[in-house]
Amino acid sequence: MEQVKCECGHVNPHGTVFCESCGKPLEEDTSKKLLDMRYEGSARRSQTYNKTIIDKIWNFFSSVKVGVWLIVITLVASAIGTIFPQEMYIPPNVSPAEYYKDQYGWAGKLYYELGFNNLYGSWWYMLLIASIGVSLVICSLDRVIPLYRALQKQGVTRHPTFLQRQRLFSASQVADENRVFSQMKERLIKRRYHVREENGNILAEKGRFSRWGPYVNHIGLIIFLIGAMLRFVPGMYVDKVLWIREGETKEIPGTGGKYFLKNEKFIFEVYEKGKDNEVFNAAIDRVGNGTVAKTYQTNVVLYKRVGPIVPGEEPKLKKVKEYNIRVNEPLKYDHYALYQVDFKMNEPNKMAFNLIDKATNQSFGTVTVDLHNPQSSYNLGNGYRVELLSYFPDFYFDDDGNPATKSKIPNNPAFVFKMITPDKPKGEVSFVAIRQTIEPFGNNKYKMAFAGLDTRNVSGLTVRRDFTLWILGIGGVIFMIGLIQGMYWNHRRIWLQRVNGEVWLAAHTNKNWFGLKNEMKHIIEGTGLAMPIDQAEVEKKAAQGGDRNGATK
Amino acid sequence: MKKQRLVVRTVILLLLLSAVGYTIYSNFFTEKTSIKVGATAPDFVLTDLNGKSHRLSDYRGKGVFLNFWGTWCKPCEREMPYINRQYEAYKQQGVEVLAVNVGEPKLSVQKFIDQFGLTFPVAIDREDQVMNAYDIDQLPATFLIDKNGKIKKIITGTMTEEMVQQYMESIKP
């Protein structure tokens, strides 16, 4: 492998911009006055070898430019994904292809055809995220290792051009060099600099650990991504929905049949004037009485199934605990958590009808239909009987004009009754829906008159189990530590060297030059050293029409 | 040194690639539960509308055509007559059909059976237990279970009569 030997004797890897030890520029670029101190001029490996296919892939991901573009593309795609609702948020009973076209026209159609309806779970979106992860790992590795090496190997005595080409630089003649050096050393140590001496030269350094901030931050991000990845491992992450009616006992989905839940009662409360504390009165007046929700609560009993789990078999249940689930107060057990997320008030449960003579309004008995399990025949005695020919729990007329049901949920129950009476032994047929009666075979003598509705509330719960949360947490904490490390500390270095009877002073920081300049001012005060000139600023001013010293003509 | 660099890079790239590959694979090519092709079909017990109890594990040695359906689901309604006809042909050859209704009233299910003259056993999964075990979120859903009790294929969406015939042929013991 090619290596470059500097005149100071240090051997540098190929591609190094200036000597790791003494700082003498190896690749002479005289067009710029100042040295580019990025990555300490170290050889970023990616930019030096490009032979095998592995190297080519490596180099692709090692480029910060590529990384930035990956992030930009991901951001743009994510933004487009928010223009129309994602597929999981559209009504469940419609075909997505039609829904997007009907709701949003040609734009919606295009949106659907390009797959933006399911963007965040699409293969290419995940590939983008994964590429960002790969880019993160490779970029960091390619930079942190050479940087660490360069900072480890840096020498105290620097080549004069290195000092000259620092942004902050001054050369001064002093009467007593030794006194100035010892004075400076003392002051630097007082300011918590780590001071190294060699041949009477000084390198003072502090806050080097700030340089590792971005890489610590990246480690955090990668741990975070690993946590997100683990969600796809079966058993690590459960996110299910459980709709449960009052009085029902249901298996909790996602628990593998191990746990059952009984909904004893669902409670929905609002703030009401007179009932609640007076301090709420003004607010209640503003938005209206009885419109602000106070409580969403489900009183539940958690059961554990004992014995072998065979789905479909009548479960043997053992009571585990009773709990009142409220918003933000989930029922937690065995790493599962049940959250209150939704509800439905007054779902029809039972419906009652009176069999009456239309002319006289005389009733011959009441039929109560259980909307979840209706009987096929109801005997009222004395020769009066009602047969249920058809039942539509969620009634609508289908495309052919026939009565049909949209689901098994009794949102809008409808019935076809056959009323058998002593004087109509063949029976009369009547179609009964809410506020609607149709007599398909002409005028009937009898009718099923609505006599009452029994309703139940339904509670919507989310079942969660997340074993990835602590990994995401650790990733987040490390991310923050890295951020703080890089943001609140600066890596400052000050070089003090004797060159040709002068004292040369140069300083560098990775950020906050203003702070460094201020600190320098205090350190050199009274030593007779000249305050270093900010050569970057001088150049800038010169470019704007001033002379080299910054004075405008 | 050059060789070492290549090895290190290859190892790191392989590690990254396998992590990405695993994520993409598990997200798009497998079901996120234990219900997948090749796995043993979860056992269950259900009683059909004639009062006969069916335990899936009792059907080892036979192919089982397990269909989840609802009366309101139009594609289910379309494929029922196909299944019924093919069942007539395949029941002598060791293929059983089990139709699991997703917890509707017995009345609705019975009317449906009578309307289409279904001859295979139909059971109602009243507490969603079997549906949860098979992770059903879309109807119709059909599971082809071979004579060893393993899932051979999972079909979501409606089938033509030809498909039904081929599927039954494929699980013939």
TrEMBL record, chain A:
UniProt keyword terms in alphabetical order: Cytochrome c-type biogenesis, Membrane, Transmembrane, Transmembrane helix
Annotated ranges, domain ResB-like: 64-428, 442-520
Subcellular location field: Membrane
GO biological process, one term: cytochrome complex assembly
GO CC terms of this entry: membrane
Transmembrane domains' residue ranges: 66-84, 123-145, 215-233, 467-489
Membrane topology listed for this record: Multi-pass membrane protein
InterPro entries on file: Cyt_c_bgen_Ccs1/CcsB/ResB (IPR023494), ResB-like_domain (IPR007816)
PANTHER family reported in the protein's UniProt record: CYTOCHROME C BIOGENESIS PROTEIN CCS1, CHLOROPLASTIC (PTHR31566)
Protein name: Cytochrome c biogenesis protein
Organism: Thermaerobacillus caldiproteolyticus
TrEMBL record, chain B:
Keywords: Cytochrome c-type biogenesis, Disulfide bond, Redox-active center, Signal-anchor, Transmembrane
Superkingdom as given in the UniProt entry: Bacteria
SUPFAM superfamilies in alphabetical order: Thioredoxin-like
Keyword Disulfide bond assigned: yes
Keyword field contains Transmembrane: yes
Compartments, as annotated in UniProt: Cell envelope
Alphabetical list of InterPro entries matching this protein: AhpC/TSA, Thioredoxin-like_sf, Thioredoxin_domain, Thioredoxin_ResA/DsbE_sf
PROSITE patterns according to UniProt: THIOREDOXIN_2
An MF annotation (GO) of this entry: antioxidant activity
GO cellular component, one term: cell envelope
Biological processes per GO annotation: cytochrome complex assembly
Residues of the Thioredoxin domain: 35-173
Major subcellular location class: other
Protein name from the UniProt record: Peroxiredoxin
